[in-house]
Amino acid sequence: MMITAGNINDTTMMSAVLENIRVPRDGKGRPRTRPDRVLADKGYPSRANRAWLRDRRIAATIPERDDQIAHRRKKPGRPIAFGDKQKERYKGRNVVERRFNRLKQWRGIAMRSEKLARNYRAAVSLAAALIWIKTDLR
């Protein structure tokens, strides 16, 4: 989790968030730091993000925005295919959106009423832990 100012867009923070990921392995070994694939919404398909993912050999499932598709049609180049396999993979993205919506049911988190970033981070961590415990007990 990364906390930024309210006027920072998500696409500029994608590489920073992915660099901080640590996924524990089953059994022994150091945590994985590179995902196999990234699922992102239409807010992330910038050239910089795609180049960053390509340099690290991370597959991407990111739909293009309509204005980018129209721009690609005007100029020759390699189109980004978003075929049936990509559409099937992208269906898993709704899980992430549902989790964000669940977190934002906490009024203080949705309004970001905390003045200090550390307090907001603590509130998000607490809410996420409580949601996880509540859903795990069902």
Automatic annotation (TrEMBL):
Domain Transposase IS4-like stretches: 2-131
Q: Which GO terms describe its molecular function?
A: DNA binding; transposase activity
Chain positions covered by the region annotation Disordered: 68-87
Please state what the protein is called: Transposase
Query: Could you state one GO biological process linked to this protein?
Result: DNA transposition
Name a Pfam family for this protein: DDE_Tnp_1
Query: Where does the UniProt annotation place the signal sequence?
Result: none
